[in-house]
Amino acid sequence: MDQKDTEMNEKGVTSSTSGVVVQVREKKGPLRAAIPYMPFPVAVLCLFLNTFVPGLGTFVSAFTVLCGARTDLPDRHMCCVFWLNIAAAFIQILTAIIMVGWIMSIFWGMDMVILASMCHSALCIST
């Protein structure tokens, strides 16, 4: 490639001007962004609990926020994020009667495992 065919973007990475780079970011609502980045075994336990008792794993995950697990809501206070997780757990429990809460609870547990697998041990706990 010629030097005139490449350019530096704002992050300092060289990219070709002949192609188009598309970056997609998922916009999360406050309840979804409140899911904590937990260690992998804890996330698997929460998925297991959510599968058999809807909302229980989400309820347990709320307490990991109080233990320092980070979330995608860095500007919110720890107690606010805790109560958002408690609210999500109660929504799952109350709507489990019509199966919506049970399905939501399983997906919530799967999100916990996905976030835990993306999380490195140094990044899981905020300082």
TrEMBL record:
Coiled coil: none annotated. Keywords: Membrane, Transmembrane, Transmembrane helix. GO terms for cellular component: membrane. It is a multi-pass membrane protein. It comes from the Eukaryota. The keyword ATP-binding does not apply. It is found in: Membrane. InterPro entries: SPEC3/Stum (IPR026673). The chain crosses the membrane at residues 40-69, 81-108. Its main location: membrane. This is Stum, mechanosensory transduction mediator homolog. It comes from Oncorhynchus kisutch (Coho salmon). The gene is STUM.
